[in-house]
Amino acid sequence: MSPILEISDLSVAYRADGGDVHAVEHVSLTLNPGEVVGLCGESGSGKSTLAYGAMRLLRPPALITSGSVRYSGRRITSGGDPVDILTMSHRELHKIRWRETAIVFQSAMNALNPVLRIEDQILDGIRAHLKMPRHEAKEKAASLIDLVGIPRDRLRAYPHELSGGMRQRVMIAMALAADPEVVIMDEPTTALDVVVQRDILSQIVELKERLGFAVLFITHDLSLLLELADRIAVMYAGRLMETGAAQVLMRDPAHPYTEGLLNSFPSLRGPRRDLNGIPGVPPDLRDTKPGCPFIPRCGFATDACSSVDMSLEPVTGSVTARTADGRHLTACPIVSPEELREATEKARQARQVSKEASPEKAASQEGVRS
Amino acid sequence: MKSGFFAGIANIWRNLPGKAKVGVWLFGFFVLAAVIGPEVAPYAPGAQTPLTQAAPSAQHWFGTTQTGQDVLSQVLTGIRLTLELALLVGVIVTVISVLVGVSSAYLGGVWDDVLSLITNVFLVIPALPLLIVLLGYLSDQGQTSTIVVLSLLGWPWGARVIRAQTLTIRGRDFIAASRETGEKTWRIIGFEVIPNEVSLIAASFVNTVLYAIGASVALAFVGLTNVTTWSLGTILYWAQNDSALQGGAWWWFVPAGLAVALIGTSLVLLNSGIDELGSPRLRATRGTARVAGHRIWPTDPTPVLAQLEAEPGRLGSFLHSFSRASVLQETSAGGNR
Question: CA-nearest residue of chain B to A59?
């Protein structure tokens, strides 16, 4: 299966007085038709910059410094060679945006115009890209709003008359209006409560099954992705750390950073365990130190880490053999999944022992952690 | 600290659009003329020479009036009075309009009702006829009364605009947050609200100065000021009084008129740079919107560095076509074309 969107070696920098801020560095990521790829990482790790940069939506001082973004949608290429979004002109981009690649923006409150009715906003988009008579466009808008589970009479509502969840759904409906092949969702559920969040996520999955678009789902909530995504890409300091199938990544993380992320939130169904988080703060993105950007926060860091070239290599070792998935890639050639697992296990036991030895000290630590 | 301040000024200057820079230079020139003008003037403005109504010459650069006064000296002296009056009116009007606008919007309630009413009443008073009536009625027609009258009639425009802006700022979350942290009202107004309006206030100041120059020149022209003093307006008054136009003495009124026009132009140009001054975000993007010789607009697709470097910008390639390097390139590639 050929990928529908192939981001390769993409670098994006923000020009600043103190030197370029390298927000995304040599990132390669593919999106297959009908696939949900989750992109996760801490705040400021370059998730949104990667997605918006690939769509060329970033404003100055952003600058794409290397790479290519090849798109091969049915309508555009008609089976021929993929087109490179990075070499497109203003006009070509206009054709592709929304029609081929739609974006669900982060905050629905700001993305919707407060003085226009929902219907008019959807119609605006439809009529900008699809040539259809007004009554047909209206019908289309109504069916879209149906699609995301909002009653039709709400079409006449203004954004402030809708709840946060409904607004987010309207955004999703608008993104789907032109039947795009790639939908980028930038933290679409971050501001919502878990019940509505769950509701919208299951709707996204259902719509995806029905309409067959591919999703690039950006979030900092790894637990969400474990359920939603087919594949997950973990970003840190503008670089991809690890990619792999969601289940594999959850069970056998190959990069210490992923391990740290997984240890930062409680599992709903698994056994009770201590949460560690990741000590320290992300690095300054103006630095261009060679090697792994995670060194200062990594428990496994060695001298060899500073000469790592951060390219993604297939994970090797017995754990991978068990999962039998060749697409599990990691940027860390130093630590193997087995070592990672062992170390985590050891740390867990050590804490267990100390907790039994001095319960009150452990309790106070617990307090600090929470 | 001091170096930081100057570095900040230098940074603002660097990021200023070209129009505003022209405005700064032009306005600076007139301020300089106002400061040193009367001292460097070759003659006393009222001194009569035997050469009457003479065209510009080496002796009298701008020619002389009907009574043989040197026009250049009059203009150099007159700029000071006009600019002084305009800047003073600008300061007074800006202070009044900020006080009235901010307090009526921020305090709300009865305050807002009363202050808005006063503002609106002053707004509908037809300014120029009232100015003429007032100044005609006042016994002292000097500089001071002109300033007072112009200030009294000039403030409601700025107050309205600033009130509207304050209303939107007052509703924002950071004001609620600072009230929550227990900041005093005057501190919220002075440190949270007003910094957000700097560009608006500055624009209002510049517009007021413009208005004051226009109005004061007009008043002087119709004779409603002390016509024995020298300002750009009184020069025009005497020129008109002594039929300079009929006599074909263009050098008498053109310099003063041109000075008024140029001061006005410089203020309008200055206004275009004020937005940047008030908004750090605008400042940040403008300075960096130029990459590899290309100007990048916020609505452009994100530029790709390799493409920008591959083709020089339109202006850059235009200039390059004149350069020696391009000639060498063309001859080596295209032979003896």
Answer: B298
